[in-house]
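Dear support,

I submitted the protein below through the web form. The confirmation email said the job was done, but the results page showed an empty box. After a refresh the structure appeared. I'm attaching both so you can tell me whether what I see now is the final result or a partial one.
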Amino acid sequence: MEIVTIFGIFAVILVGVASTGIRIVPQAKVMVVERLGKFFKTASSGLNYLVPFVDAPRAIEMRTGNRFMRSNLVDLREQVMGFDTVQVITHDNVNMEVGSVIYYQIVEPAKALYQVENLALAIEQLTMTNLRNIMGGLTLDQTLTSRETVNTKLRIVLDEATEKWGVKVTRVELREIEPPQAIKAAMAKQMTAERERRAEVTKAEGDKAAAILQAEGEKISRILRAEAERDAEIARAEGHKRATMLQAEGKAEATRLVFEAIHNGRATPEVLALRYMETLQELGKGDNKIFVPYEATATLGAVATLKEVFAQTGDAAKPAPAPTRSAASLSAQAIARNTVVPEHATLPGGTPAVAPRRSRPAPDTQDD
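What the results page shows now:
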């Protein structure tokens, strides 16, 4: 009975000790297992068994926030490690504070445990020193405007340094850059001056463009106005020409109709005298008029003719210049010719209006 009890106790102890070797590893995590103090294997996610007192997990120290924690599991996910601001000096001797963030991933857990003593501390110190080196080779303006360049350079340097630790640096970002207050004030003044300069340049360019557009508008307006005036003058000239032509045609047609009416109607002297009186009334409507009666023009014409005849008779013996007629005689003769009454016209009562002309005796052509 005692032997059975001893074996039972021994079996319970053995089962208890064996159960301590059962380990469950979560997803995306692994466990580095050592057997008798030597690297044995990397336990993947799932159920794993470690031989008690022979196999043991190797702890790794990881950084969470500002604290360092030890864990038997190695996280294979991408880790984020943020650093406090560090003092750096630029190439132009400006002291500033720079904060950074690094993203890394453990790809070989055994190297991360055996190639470096404290992986998190090593990454932190490596990042700070390389950040100071890179920022020291840049000026203040370059550090403020070339963040992408600084991030790329720092990532390449860290990736090369951590490759033997089994770590892959995926991304490095400059979180903040804090220049001194004096530099900030100077930068603010520079920015204000630059914006004012841009505003003045923009205003000047706007005024220039407005002046050019206004000049072009005035030019086009003057051209269009000149073309409009030219077209209007041409139109008025064409209208005046057309009106003058129509008026001349109307007068010609009226004269022709009046002449035909008088000619076909065989106007009597009484009708001509009546028309003469109506014409005198129309002419008498204006001022500064001088009228010469119709009978006076005939008399003036006769007197001028007699004068010319006597002058020719008296001066027959001497050669005389060509007779010149006065304006009064010419106008009287013209009026007399235009108002000649036809020989066949008769007055009321059957009396001829014009006495028939008597034929002159033929000149005697016989020799004395």
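Response: this is the final, complete result; the empty box was a page-load delay. Residues 92 and 291 are 114 Å apart (CA to CA).
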